[in-house]
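Final report, Chapter 2: Outcomes

The project's central promise was a pipeline that accepts a single protein chain and returns its three-dimensional structure in a standardized token representation, suitable for archiving and comparison. That pipeline is now operational. To close this chapter, we reproduce one record exactly as it appears in the project archive, with the input sequence first and the structure output second.
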Amino acid sequence: MSVTTPTTHSALAWNTWFRDRWIVSPRYDLFFFIGSCGLTFAFWGLYTLAQQGHFWRSDAVLLTYFVFTALFDHPHIFQTFSRTHLDPVEFQQRRSLHTWGLLGLIGLGFGVIALGKEAELIVFASVLGSFHIIRQHFGLLKAYKNLNRDRHKIDDWLDFGLFYSGMFACFFYDYTEIGNPVIIYGNLQSWFPDFPPAIEAVFWHSFWIFLIGFIARQLQRLWQRQPLNLPKLLFLTAALSTHYFVFFATATPFLVAEALETVYHNVQYQGWIMHYQKQRFPGIPNVVWKWFGVAMLYGLIVGAIEIFGLLDQGWGLWLFVPFTMIVIYHYLVDGLIWKFSQQAELRCLFAPPPEKSS
């Protein structure tokens, strides 16, 4: 005679609906890859409080931007070097790109500033950065789908359609009917891409169609007692809701909007690179904390230089040019250095543990 405990039915339902595999672990993923979306709302709160005068003699825009760029954005940029220059396999494979390519990019930046096009350079970096964020989100989405064998054609079509329609609805909304130069800070302003409203409307209506289909598909899977992909569901919710909040629900100055859009991505990347460092350099004691400490020091120094450049808007911008180009370098190479299909060493490093037999 068997005895059934009161929790057996609910546990059975959970195991039926959610058979989840995570990139690192549930706790790690929820903190770095999903839950860190909360920083978008935290930075909006910081800006709002600064606007209301809660920080003595503070410029709300610069205060918010400095905390973002010094503690989050530039540290995550610096972490890239642990993959590009300190990983012997990657460096040997693309030595010219990581040496002469980087130096050439920095030289190009000085040329742009010499032509008086510093505002246009910031515009280019901003647009490229938005695509970079979307691409990183997409990579994590694919990872959760592959780990959980969630690759039915219907689910691929709905998942990717929902993601891209939502992301590009936000992106094109931000670049629709601008009409005037965008003030970056102070006298630094430039024209941004200005798209017709029809493009944003197409993506926005497509998003609602995909969303209805996506919800219906999840209900169908529940009805048929097929497993749901919880990491994917949580990640899509985090990525799409933060972008909606930044682009549709708030209206903030350019530098603040950049912080709100990017900080979630920054922490995602920190979590990813820290996991990589632990796997790639197991013989170096405290390798993660050593890299993190140096990255934070780099961020504070470069963040201070960037704020000085924004305030000075003269030779201070020349001083910041190399670091601007390092940011663009990060955007350009990041899509190459993490291509698992082309790099066997990455597949070995990030191979998931074997599934537990039920």
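Archive annotation: The CA atoms of residues 143 and 345 lie 17 Å apart.
This record, like all others produced under the grant, will remain available to the consortium after the project formally closes.
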